[in-house]
Amino acid sequence: MKGKHMFLNSSELDELTGIRRGRTRAGIKQTKYEMQAAFLREIGIPFISNARGRPVVLLSAVESRRTAEAPKKGWKPAVIGA
What angle do CA 45, 30, 63 make, to 5 degrees? Predict the structure, then answer.
């Protein structure tokens, strides 16, 4: 399976979550991995954490989500559609 992979790599996970580093706020440290895991939970993408605490996401979980979500139609009053 050259060229194909089963899981998102680190740079793909960074791009998906928009999180590239941890932060310290009010003396509380959050690692990049903790922040990424919280974001993935929030948007409903399944993952597991490996022994190093890194979220591991199946590529198929992201691909199936992309095709499964249909765009939502906005509300329009019936008189406009008539």
Answer: 15
